[in-house]
Write a structure and sequence with these properties.
37% of the residues lie in helices and 26% in strands. By secondary structure, the protein is an alpha+beta fold. It has a domain at 52-179: Immunoglobulin-like, CATH 2.60.40.
């Protein structure tokens, strides 16, 4: 075999290897891009997917509120609620019988919420203990996205986790408004006769 033939064989093998490496690189790049596109689509769908939760709101402890929240960027519709036991305050008011719990809700916008006062921990916890609800009450929420996709989530409302807490009251915008209203309605003392203003 002469040098020219060997050079042709080496060139052919090298070209074949080069084409195989190039094809493998293209295939790998295509697979990575497909995976990236699938992840981007899943993220976009997750952002647009509604997420309706029912929570025992602790912002005003030792007072507790029940809050229905849509914590996503997607609107929810045809929302229904199912309770493992009635949500009841110590004075006998059945919160789970409120119209939006009993009959459901047609729509809840992104970041929308509805809050209802439940009770004060001091009276609520003994009341729930009498009913045997120390492990809380489960709420199953069923709803649809605007695309018609159905979702279901369950949440445990358990105010016993706040037992024996040492709570401080935080000032809110409502407190500021009340203070301003109080200042506006207070009478200013009459100036003393002869005093300059």
């Amino acid at each position: 075999m002469d040098a020219a033939t060997i050079a042709q064989i080496v060139t052919a093998v090298t070209n074949t290897l080069f084409v195989m490496v190039l094809a493998g690189g293209y295939y790998y790049t295509w697979r990575v891009s497909q995976r990236t596109l699938a992840e981007m689509k899943a993220q976009r769908m997750a952002i647009g997917r509604p997420q309706v939760i029912v929570d025992d709101d602790y912002d005003s402890l030792p007072e507790i509120n029940i809050v229905v929240r849509n914590v996503s960027q997607g609107a929810a519709r045809e929302i229904t609620f199912e309770f493992s036991a009635p949500i009841e305050s110590s004075n006998g008011f059945v919160i789970s019988d409120l119209p939006y719990f009993k009959g459901g809700m047609d729509f809840l916008p992104p970041d929308g919420e509805i809050s209802t006062y439940w009770d004060h921990l001091e009276t609520l916890l003994p009341f729930l203990e009498q009913k045997g609800l120390e492990r809380g009450t489960w709420v199953t929420t069923r709803y649809k996205g605007l695309d018609g996709e159905s979702y279901e989530t369950s949440w445990n409302l358990n105010p016993f986790i706040y037992r024996d807490g040492r709570f401080t009251r935080r000032s809110s915008m409502g407190d500021l408004v009340k203070a301003a209203e109080k200042l506006a309605t207070e009478k200013r003392p009459d100036p003393k006769p002869g005093a300059e203003e």
